[in-house]
Amino acid sequence: MKVSYNWLAEWVKLDISPQELADKLTMSGLEIEEVESISRAGVNDTILDVAVTANRGDCLGMLGMAREVGLLTNSKVQLPRISLTETGPDITELFKVKIEDAAACPRYTARLLRNVKIGPSPKWLVDKLNALGLRSINNVVDVTNYVLLEWGQPLHAFDLDLLAENRIIVRRATQNESFTTLDGLSRKLDTDMLLIADSEKAVALAGVMGGENTEVTDTTQNILLECAYFNPGSIRRTSRQLGLSTDSSYRFERGVDISALPQAIDRAAQLIQQLAGAEIARGLIDEYPNPIPAAKVQLRFERVNRVLGTKLSSSQIINIINRLEFTVLKQQAQALQLEIPGYRSDITREIDVIEEIARIYGYHNITQTTPKGCIGNNPINRLHELENRASDILIGCGFWEAINFSFTNEKVYYKINMASKGLKLKNPLNQEQQLLRTSLTPSLLENLSTNIKYQQPDVCIFELSSVYESAGLDKSRTDSVQERQLIAGAMTGKRQNSFWGEHQLEIGFYDLKGVVETLLAGFGIAGVRFSPHRISFLQPGVQVQVAGEYLGFLGQLDKDIGAELDLGQAVFLFELDFMSLVKHIPAKKVFEPLCRYPAIVRDMALVISDDVSARQVEDVIWESCQPCLREIRLFDVYRGEPLDEGYKSLGFSLTYQSNERTLTEEEVNLSCEQVVAELRQKIGATLRR
Predict the structure, then answer these.
(1) How does 130-144 read in b/e, with b if 16+ C-beta sit within 10 Å?
(2) Domains identified in the chain and CATH numbers
(3) Of the four, 60, 136, 219, 486, which is 20 to 30 A from 66 by CA?
């Protein structure tokens, strides 16, 4: 936005140089990219090139910039007086306007001007347009451009005699409708684009560019003057789809002041009357079907100072509010109820008002303070801490962290026969990312496949991330999708890098199980159970439970599925529900000193049916023994001679220890006898001789 220093000086008292003004504007958030002095024929001025941010559409006109300068210099803005003479019948008897899409065009105003004398503009108008980079066309078009620069409000002048049936219809384009704009190009439109039309044809691409068929020319005598508000999103889509950006579209995209349309159109009508001798019909067409109320915001004095780290008094805050021209609807001891003027459409919340106060008070006047905050028991901080701890544990086990997209390939789900196929996206980024994943496993398998293809066969990776599942039958509804946090890992290849002096062992199931045990133990989670579980893509599958709750699974990937994924080696996987895991973390860790008394270890080999698991044996031992039993460890599994077919031998090591005294041999022997008796009675186990 180019700003004329001389033009500003007509509206607001300037006791500072252009460079000082540029510094003030920059410090307030409106960066000045260039300060240029111009001297031509006629004319000595300084032009400030302002980088207006997208939220400050009010500063895309000289009036808005004058308000900003007056605010920063604490000077009153003197607006030009608007006065016009109306003659003849009322405009509503001569012309009609109909809005078919009030969402895209909430308000449309129009004035009718007759017996206009088209001609060149006076020197003062030409000079002002030239100074800000616009060329003069004729007195009518120049006035619409002048008011665009002055008010930041685009206007358009139609040749009234070229409008069929003296009516305007604001409507959507039909699919593939053709329209020739003022630049002479025929454009194909779609139903997302808004048009200004008469009863027969389109006459303007709303908010972007007028049409060639109603252009004001030297022969024009009567004019319909348009001043409207168009939805910023609608204009933005049209402009980008057509690759057509204009001064009008640039302003409509950033939002104009819907409340100021009558003043802006009257200002333009006044100037056309002065410069072209126009006769202005009585009245104003103002179609505004659903008036938009002014934004109302509560401002708390304490909140201002807490956010800014200041000690502003209520009177200081109110003074700034008055300078901002915000209306105080209600003043209380600790707060204000404010109404925001229409030209500040960027102000909708209390924090927006606080930012304005900081801007006007001056960022340089705010002293540096140390931020204060509570770290303690914030649940977000705690979850983040637990996520970091889980990552640290797995990295300590030799894993690398993988970071994958939440989108994944549908083919992988089918290859691994996973029951939940993922949630299909309506608009995927590409064909390889069609699904919102319901599991981390497919992504990790793709990671392994890629590594192996690049000749990196020894890989241990994990991922801690979100998955998404349908919470209801209607998968088209976004509120039926639930997010869950999972942690998963994949292992393949050798345990460590090759070394000439050692035999390299392949990673196996118990390496995987040990990693999961280490992870859970690292969180202090006790009572973990591993038991066989049917999982379509694992052989075998094992489920992980804590206190009877299903936590997840682990196991070896089925070899046939591995071959489908180009994984020509054994792959081991685990996946746990991280939020369920978190629930079982003890609230408090209690230090337990090392036991001062010696432990007694007893080994026993049990012969038992093949269909009885080691876990079942351990459960019976724990239920039947004394409290002094500290540990049960399976150290041997044997099948074969001299055992009968269908039987196996399980070797267990039982560790006894007391924190209070040294246990006797008799006590331990008696406990072992009780254990053997319970095993024989409950699951048919016998001691192996």
Answers:
(1) bbbebebebbbbbbb
(2) 2-73 (3.30.56.10), 86-287 (3.50.40.10), 296-364 (3.30.56.10), 379-583 (3.30.930.10), 600-687 (3.30.70.380)
(3) 136
